[in-house]
Amino acid sequence: MDQFYVYILFSPSLNRHYIGHTGQLDDRLFRHTNSGSKSTKAAHDWQLVYSESYPSRADAMKRESFIKKQKSRRFIETLIQTKTD
Questions:
Q1: How wide is the angle at C-alpha 17 spanned by C-alphas 63 and 32, nearest 5°?
Q2: 67 in Cβ contact with 78 (< 8 Å)
Q3: How does the average pLDDT of the chain come out, rounded?
Q4: Within 10 Å of residue 22's Cβ, how many Cβ atoms?
Q5: Would you say 76 and 19 are in contact if contact means Cβ atoms under 8 Å apart?
Q6: Pick from 57, 68, 66, 79: nearest CA to 18
Q7: Burial of 7 (0-12, 13-18, 19+ CB in 10 A)
Q8: Which residue, of 39, 49, 65, 81, is most buried by count of CB atoms within 10 Å of its CB?
Q9: What pTM was computed for the model?
Q10: What is the per-residue pLDDT across 2-12, written as a single tens digit (0 to 9) for each?
Q11: What is the 3-state secondary structure (H, E, C) of 20-84?
C-alpha cells in the first residue's frame, strides 16, 4: 500500500518554510536540496522539519492545502513544535 506525505522544509539561509506533498519523501527532499524545484532553487540548505503520512494522495493534498491556507508562520512553527515534543 502506498503512503503519501505532507512535509515542511526549512531553509536557514532564507529563513523560510516550504510545504509540499509527495509519495517518496527521501527522493523529494533530495530533489529540493540538489537539483531544486522552481520554488526551492534559491537555497540548497533545505531541512525536513515536519512530515505526516496519509493513505491517499487526495488526503495528503487536502492537508497540504489546509496548512497553506492558514498563511501563518506561527501556525507552521506550532505544528512543527507539537510534532517534536
A1: 90
A2: no
A3: 92
A4: 20
A5: yes
A6: 68
A7: buried
A8: 49
A9: 0.91
A10: 899 999 999 99
A11: EEECCHHHHHHHHHCCCCCCCCCCCCCEEEEEEEECCHHHHHHHHHHHHHCCCHHHHHHHHHHHH
